[in-house]
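queue> pop job 88
queue> type: inverse folding (structure -> sequence)
queue> payload:
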């Protein structure tokens, strides 16, 4: 569901599908585009400080940010992804894998795997495990849909994410986010 090591075709294809007008619209009719939002409640976001091969101070509000999350089996926990709908530079996709997070339960000191993808390029950086980043605090609030929660987390990385191909490192010194997670058949 969420791209860990997304290929350019999937990322570009998904973006184009999101912004391409429907063929069902009448010719010449105004096209109504739905603006991307992270959470329907309006309180989703991603903030992060990146340094190294990619330098950025990210402050993405709910409006214009795409995010999604789901439970995962191996290792047990959740995965959340965040990207800007506009594709403005730096065109990044950040994927957080949080180990041991269970449905509806708050947590502290959560081991975190982080992947940073520079979309439109072959540049992918990953911590390649959950020992380099930590979520200090994590809270969950149920949303309207069954088994769906708003997760809010704050954390840091003590070591950089290394280039999967080629050279370079990206240190995400701090991060905080709020986004949705859908739990599917996860054993508590």
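queue> result:
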């Amino acid at each position: 569901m969420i791209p860990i090591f997304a290929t350019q075709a999937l990322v570009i294809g998904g973006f184009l599908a999101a912004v391409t007008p429907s063929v069902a619209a009448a010719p010449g009719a105004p096209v109504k585009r739905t603006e991307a939002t992270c959470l329907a409640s309006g309180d989703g976001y991603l903030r992060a400080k990146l340094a190294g091969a990619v330098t950025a101070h990210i402050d993405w509000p709910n409006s214009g940010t795409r995010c999604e999350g789901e439970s995962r089996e191996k290792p047990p926990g959740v995965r959340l992804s965040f990207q800007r709908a506009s594709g403005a530079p730096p065109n990044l996709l950040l994927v957080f894998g949080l180990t041991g997070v269970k449905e509806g339960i708050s947590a502290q000191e959560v081991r975190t795997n982080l992947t940073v993808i520079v979309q439109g390029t072959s540049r992918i950086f990953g911590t390649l495990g959950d020992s380099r980043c930590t979520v200090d605090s994590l809270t969950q609030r149920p949303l309207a849909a069954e088994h769906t929660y708003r997760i809010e987390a704050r954390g840091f990385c003590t070591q950089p994410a290394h280039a999967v191909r080629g050279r370079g490192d990206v240190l995400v010194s701090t991060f905080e986010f709020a986004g949705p997670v859908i739990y599917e058949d996860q054993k508590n």
